[in-house]
Specification:
Blueprint: H1 18-36, E1 41-52, E2 99-110, E3 116-122, H2 132-145, E4 150-155, E5 174-179, E6 188-192, E7 201-202, E8 213-214, H3 216-226, H4 245-257
Parallel strand pairs: 3-4
Antiparallel strand pairs: 1-2, 2-3, 4-5, 5-6, 7-8
Length: about 260
């Protein structure tokens, strides 16, 4: 069955699904764009790897107290009766450890030279909360913005802190930012809600080249059906993160109308 939502399905933002959705979307984007590009370009799937040392995942350091063992020397041949100390009961606990994060993104490259014409990023939760993941992404973002490379930044997550934009813009559920290398500091911004279809946009390339239309909505519709998310999503529960109250009421009516509740 198709997704019951007209645009982004908020249930796919759940930690249970998002990693898979992100991977599938990056791959689907690469395949869809590749078929529309001239032979001048190729699409490369790249990967960014780092250790997440946020509050949820911190390094395990060396303990303050070291336990050492020393051989005992027998001072008497006469066996002695020793009283063993009473041992406290230990319980098994979980400690935070650094978590390796791998994030995929796309680069549109000139086939002949390898020059990166456009970078396409689909944001992950680690990019939108304080910590190593956000710092790593912001460094990469600044690197791209300091070059002539175009940046396409896709944010399909309601949770977390959005990426910095200097202009006053309305608070929307989702965002798409297109920063052309020859127009900075100006950029194109698409803001949309959970009730709206995801807007289409042109993929920026070199001036004079035919720019393919990127249709994220169609890609996500296909991903939802191929991955059979309808069999995995529990629509009787609220999505994570929860919708705003007015959107929660709207979603409840929609899901009942579609027979999902």
């Amino acid at each position: 069955m198709p997704s019951p939502f007209p645009g982004m399905n908020p249930y796919l933002e759940s930690p249970q699904f998002w990693s898979e959705v992100h991977h599938r979307l990056i791959t689907a984007l690469a395949d869809a764009i590749e078929t529309e590009l001239s032979l001048k370009y190729r699409v490369a799937i790249e990967k960014r790897t780092y250790l997440n040392n946020s509050d949820e995942s911190v390094e395990v350091g060396i303990p303050d107290v070291a336990v050492t063992f020393q051989k005992s020397t027998l001072t008497s041949q006469t066996p002695a009766t020793a009283t063993l100390p009473t041992l406290g009961e230990a319980v098994t606990v979980t400690i935070p450890v650094p978590e390796e994060i791998r994030e995929g993104y796309l680069e549109i490259r000139e086939a002949a030279t390898g020059y990166v014409m456009t970078t396409i990023e689909v944001l992950s939760p680690t990019n939108k909360r304080a910590g190593t993941g956000r710092e790593a992404y912001l460094r990469k973002r600044q690197e791209v913005l300091s070059t002539p490379t175009h940046l396409v930044e896709i944010d399909l997550l309601r949770g977390g802190k959005p990426m910095p934009i200097l202009s006053e813009i309305p608070q929307t559920d989702y965002r798409i930012l297109i920063a052309l290398g020859n127009r900075r500091p100006l950029a194109q911004f698409y803001g949309f809600s959970v009730r709206q279809e995801i807007p289409k946009f042109f993929l920026p390339l070199q001036s004079g080249d035919t720019e393919p239309i990127v249709d994220l909505q169609s890609l996500l519709v296909g991903i939802y059906q191929r991955a059979r998310y309808d069999m995995a999503v529990d629509y009787s529960q609220e999505p994570v993160p929860r919708l705003k109250e007015e959107d929660r009421v709207w979603a409840d009516e929609l899901l009942r109308e579609k027979g999902r509740r």
